[in-house]
Specification:
By secondary structure, this protein is an alpha/beta fold. It is 40% helix and 11% strand. The chain has 3 domains: 6-109, 3-Layer(aba) Sandwich (Rossmann fold), CATH 3.40.50; 142-294, P-loop containing nucleotide triphosphate hydrolases (Rossmann fold, 3-Layer(aba) Sandwich); 370-484, no CATH class. The model is unreliable at 424-487 (pLDDT under 50).
Length: 487
């Protein structure tokens, strides 16, 4: 704006337009900035004035819904597009943004990016930065996943009322939402209940949300219209009646509507007790229960990418198709294509497969988090030298304590797999071909390179699998090895 450019803030719902207008007006009150909104909450006359102001440059910042993408909107000098809740917009909407102006900067924000956008960031096509520091005095939302029971709903609502809070009750069916609200009134007669959904008139919906904001209602029975970015700090309990029918990103976004103050918040993801969960629904709910900590949106988005796939980079699909080649291979292929386009040449390493009869893994008791275990496996697979293995071991000791024998075996196998610089480990009998991981074995044993990778506990059993040595010779070599091994 200091350069004389215009800014367009694109949001998915009319409620969010109203909220952003209020926030922007408060924070920009001390600056000579003209701020306008464009949604169905504006009258036709007001909308025409905003469109004219965008065309002649008199409007500096506009906050609007999809109306901003219509052909009638012409901006004099657009410099930045801010897309809030990016996961709510489709490919056609994003292509329309590009056509608004080719040299425009685009800032997309989302707690749970859709698979294609996240995959573009992971492979380097788009730049991504993450905000992992939560606001001060913010607590994680306590999450409960279970079958629907009336007594559980009664207890949740009454507990919130006791601390003078408010409740969101998600019923995502407009034709039966009034029936659901009547049922809540029967269960908790003392609660003041209101309903909100997208088919209400704009003035009626605006009034309901304003009344809820001003605490004139205790329970808001609503559809997923409240999913996108609403900030009601006094609402700290979220009850979702049919969590099995909603997507992973939707559920995480809904959970984010509570816990926006210093109070501890609760989220209940319920499903019908009489109906079995599908495999996908079970995986979604398990993921939400696992990632309930602050800043868990990125982990949830990565899981969504694994479940649904990344879609087409240049087509209309924003998910799918990844199962045909597998996630790791797909990301690697796209990463190689991006590197070639940028002119970056990556070192190609030949692949050698060596199967060792050794118990080498990260036990659950050592690293309990599945995500952290996978991260360590990935980092160990990427080591390129013994120094990399040493650094990784130091980090493990610092984070998780002294590693057990299985982890030590895994680290030794990592050293064995690490590529050797040219000239090392070959043609130098004194080094015994690096002694297969520097175990201090005699050079005459270097030919049997698989054994040194094993901890002492596993060596005797492995010697029985060497068909080249007679039994007596195996015993002699074993004695010689024990004598030469450092104390």
């Amino acid at each position: 704006m200091q350069d004389g450019k215009q800014v367009a803030v694109l949001v998915p719902t009319t409620l969010l337009v109203t909220q952003h207008l209020s926030t922007f007006s408060e924070r920009m009150s001390g600056f000579p900035v003209v701020l306008k909104g464009l949604s169905r909450f504006q009258t036709d006359k007001e909308a025409r004035e905003v469109v004219a102001g965008l065309a002649d440059g008199s409007v500096d910042i506009v906050v609007g819904t999809h109306r901003l993408l219509s052909p009638e909107i012409k901006m004099k000098d657009l410099g930045l597009i801010v897309v809030d809740e990016e996961q709510r917009f489709g490919v056609e909407h994003k292509e329309q943004m590009k056509r608004m102006r080719t040299s425009v900067d685009v800032l997309s924000m989302s707690a749970t990016p859709i698979p294609r956008t996240l995959e573009m960031a992971v492979t380097g096509i788009r730049e991504m930065s993450t905000i992992t520091t939560p606001p001060e005095e913010r607590h994680p939302v306590l999450t409960y996943v279970g079958a629907y029971e009336d007594r559980r709903v009664i207890a949740a609502v009454r507990r919130e009322l006791l601390r003078e809070g408010q409740v969101f009750f998600i019923h995502n069916r407009v034709n039966s939402i009034e029936k659901a609200a009547a049922h809540i009134r029967e269960l908790v007669p003392e609660a003041r209940v209101a309903t909100a959904h997208g088919q209400m008139g704009e003035h009626q919906l605006e009034q309901v949300m304003l009344d809820f904001w001003e605490k004139r209602f205790d329970v808001l029975v609503c559809t997923t219209i409240v999913e996108s970015g609403l900030d009601v700090s006094n609402a700290n309990t979220m009850i979702i009646e049919r969590a099995d029918t909603l997507g992973l990103s939707q559920l995480h976004q809904l959970r984010g509507r509570v816990g926006r103050s210093r109070e501890r918040a609760y989220a209940y993801f319920l499903y019908p007790a009489e109906k079995p969960l599908t495999e996908t629904a079970h995986e979604r709910l398990a993921t939400l229960a696992q990632h309930s900590d602050l800043g868990g949106g990125m982990a949830i988005a990565m899981k969504d990418l694994e479940i649904r796939g990344a879609g087409n980079l240049l087509g209309g699909e924003q998910s799918g198709h990844i199962a045909d080649v597998g996630f790791d291979l797909y990301v690697r292929l796209v990463g190689e294509a991006v590197s070639d386009f940028k002119g970056e040449s990556a070192e190609e390493l030949g692949e050698i497969r060596i199967e060792l009869p050794v118990d080498a893994h990260l036990p659950h008791g050592y690293i309990q988090s599945e995500r952290l275990r996978l991260e360590m496996y990935k980092r160990l697979a990427e080591v390129r030298s013994d120094d990399d293995v040493d650094l990784l071991r130091e980090e493990m000791v610092d984070r998780y304590g002294q590693p057990p024998i299985e982890v030590e075996s895994l680290l030794i196998v990592g050293r064995f797999r690490a590529p050797r610089p040219p000239g090392r480990g070959q043609g130098d009998h004194g080094r015994g071909q690096e002694r297969a991981l520097r175990t201090g074995r005699p050079a005459r044993l270097a030919g049997r390179a698989a054994q040194p990778c094993l901890p002492q506990e596993h060596r005797q059993g492995t010697r029985e699998h060497d068909p080249r040595a007679p039994p007596a010779d195996r015993g002699d070599r074993g004695e010689a090895h024990r004598r030469d091994r450092p104390a």
